[in-house]
Write a structure and sequence with these properties.
The chain has about 600 residues and is of the alpha+beta class. The chain folds into 2 domains: about 210 residues, Beta-galactosidase, Chain A, domain 5; about 375 residues, Glycosyltransferase (Alpha/alpha barrel). It contains 16 helices and 27 strands. A hairpin with a 2-residue loop joins strand 10 and strand 11. It holds the Pfam family Glyco_hydro_15. InterPro entries: 6-hairpin_glycosidase_sf, 6hp_glycosidase-like_sf, GH15-like, Trehalase-like_N.
């Protein structure tokens, strides 16, 4: 059995980095140290870029699952000669529990092979390739370990089976696993210089401790709403995509997985977008708890620093880095021969006016924790409100980050309205009478412009940009941020038009010509339907979408409308955040009659624990 699709992968995380393991037992992606570090296993993007596989030698079938409430992966191989279980984990630091997990992980990948029945011949193939496949390390045998050092990285391999080193920087071995026996392997990472040898603890103890760490975190996050199992899994995924030292949630853990096979829209998503911020905080609040929310907002304030009158950066590295200049990796052929492969993301240079609303809405969501404002928070929010007032008339790259062009995107105008609306709601805590008068006037001016220039009489719908007749699913955020009631006649007409033109089998494309359904847009549709009173349709669509995860409950960014194949970077935080928030809206609508009556989202309500 060979893996070929994005959905074949399982996801491991340790609070700083992530690894992807395919259904054939091969670790094909690991960037140790931090999510956006160079890979040591990169076969996901090129067959020669490194991997570590453990698999039966003969034909096999597979059944996979995560151990309950963890990101520890169990793969059961079934062969004609017996069954074997492979357990994979990125280790937490010993004894870490609850909100401390992932703060200081040992940076160790642990793999345990257990015989379940019969006697199964197995093969292990270890092929490290550093710097995204550029560098082949010398493998050096040292007593009980195999060391690989090249450039800035050092790997230490230990296992109960001795590997034979080849001349090409590979090592391999065959062994037989019998029922009741276990063979363990560990791989530790450390920088080459100014760091001790990678610590490689006992594999069985490490797996048990990592399982206990994940479960202790899950036990502190008791979501009580509808679709609890799906929300719980997505909450774990979002937590796995959190860089724990800073609290930042990356958009994905991969780079350059294509939106369309053979296309060139391949981007590095291992960074943090301000645009996603309010969605992320709302999802964390529902599925996690206040600690994660507070750390997220603190990270944003530190990343932005003291904001001037220049445009606010739209994205950052996990520690708040701003310069994310894009570089092509021409030595890699790309996922399923779909180049280019890039690191960095030149969207960091763009103007995106929606970020003002994302940050201000997050502050409004957190108002009980923020008030009274610290001086830096007070300054940040005032500047964001002032910039929304100043910039809303400017064209921008929009939510979907068009390159090389700028338009008057309706969703960006809506988010500027959100920024001004929340500033006005904060009242005299944020500004004096003159400030509030300015923000109120600008808010009303933005709203009037959207209602007039964002509406197409021909389509009977709000559109993607001012004065156009082109639909865009981004307008579905209008009721979700409180700009319009979901049951407003024009909003109902917009939802019908978007469904009719952009939806197929429940999957919603962003625009006409988008190559696949965009998962979070489909969940926005769920929320719009629920808030408009079409609750049966909303629940049916939610269940259909939630059923499109892979066998481990993971979403990529997009799903092909015809084949159902997952596409784009994986796993995708925005997709899982969309699921969590849609489940929350469905819960609110069922439990709170006032929402059913007013057709408004819970944007101004405290999320229910």
């Amino acid at each position: 059995m060979e893996s070929g699709q994005i959905s074949d992968y399982g996801f491991l995380a340790d609070g700083r980095s992530a690894a992807l393991v395919d259904a054939a037992g091969s670790v094909n992606w690991w960037c140790p140290g931090r999510f956006d570090a160079p890979s040591v296993f990169g076969r996901l993007l090129d067959d020669g870029a490194g991997h570590w596989s453990i698999r039966p030698e003969a034909d096999f079938t597979v059944e996979r699952s995560y151990l309950r409430d963890t990101l520890v992966l169990r793969t059961v191989f079934r062969t004609a000669k017996g069954e074997v279980a492979l357990t994979d984990a990125l280790a937490f630091e010993p004894g870490s529990r609850g909100h401390d997990i992932g703060m200081h992980p040992p940076q160790v990948l642990v793999r345990s092979v257990q015989g379940l029945s019969g006697a199964v011949p197995m093969r292990v193939h270890y092929r490290p390739r550093f710097e995204y496949g550029r560098t082949i390390a010398y493998l050096v045998e040292r007593e009980d370990m195999l060391e690989a050092i090249a450039g800035a990285a050092r790997l230490t391999f230990r296992g109960s089976v001795r590997l034979a080193c080849g001349d090409d920087g590979d090592a391999a071995a065959t062994f037989t696993v019998r029922a009741g026996t276990t063979h363990n392997f560990t791989l530790g990472y450390a920088p080459t210089y100014d760091a001790p040898l990678p610590e490689v603890p006992d594999a069985d103890q490490t797996i048990a401790d990592t399982v206990a760490g994940w479960r202790s975190w899950a036990d502190e996050h008791d979501y009580q709403g509808l679709y609890a199992e799906e929300v719980r899994r997505s909450g774990l995924v979002v937590q796995g995509m959190t860089y724990r030292p800073s609290g930042a949630v990356v958009a994905s853990v991969t780079t350059s997985l294509p939106e369309k096979l053979g296309g060139d829209r391949n981007y590095d998503y291992r960074y943090v977008w301000v645009r996603d911020f309010s969605h992320t905080l709302r999802a964390l609040w529902r599925s996690a708890c206040f600690d994660e929310v507070r750390r997220q907002f603190a990270w944003l304030g530190r990343a932005m620093g003291r904001v001037s009158d220049q445009p606010v950066p739209i994205m950052y590295g996990v520690l708040g880095e701003r310069d994310l200049t894009e570089h092509r990796l021409d030595q890699l052929g790309g996922y399923r021969d779909s180049p280019p492969v890039v690191t960095g993301n030149d969207a960091w240079r763009q103007r995106q006016n929606d970020i003002y609303g994302a940050a201000m809405d997050a502050a409004w969501l957190m108002r009980d924790q923020l008030e009274p404002f610290d001086r830096d928070v007070y300054h940040l929010l005032r500047v964001l409100a002032d910039q929304a007032e100043q910039d809303w008339k400017q064209p921008d790259a929009g939510m979907w980050e068009e390159r090389g062009v700028q338009h008057h995107h309706v969703s960006s105008k809506v988010e500027c309205w959100v920024a001004l609306d929340r500033a006005v709601r904060f009242g005299d805590q944020l500004g004096g009478p003159q400030d509030l008068a300015r923000w109120t006037a600008a808010r009303d001016e933005v709203r009037a412009a959207i209602l007039e220039r964002g509406w197409s009489d021909r389509l009977q719908s709000y559109t993607g940009v001012f004065d156009s007749d082109e639909l865009d699913a981004s307008v579905l955020v209008m009721p979700l941020v409180g700009f319009l009631r979901a049951d407003d006649p024009r909003m109902r007409s917009t939802v019908r038009a978007v469904e009719r033109r952009l939806s197929h089998d429940g999957l919603l494309r962003r625009w006409d010509g988008d190559p696949a359904g965009f998962v979070i847009c489909s969940f926005w549709l769920v929320s719009c339907l629920a808030l408009a009173g079409e609750r049966d349709r909303a629940h049916a669509l939610f269940r259909d979408l939630a059923g499109r995860v892979n066998d481990l409950g993971l979403f990529a960014e997009q799903i092909d409308q015809q084949t159902g194949e997952q596409l784009g970077n994986f796993p995708q935080a925005f997709s899982h955040i969309g699921l969590i928030n849609a489940a929350g809206v469905l819960t609110d609508v069922e439990q709170d009659p006032t929402l059913r009556e007013c057709g408004m989202p819970p944007a101004h309500f405290t999320p229910r624990r």
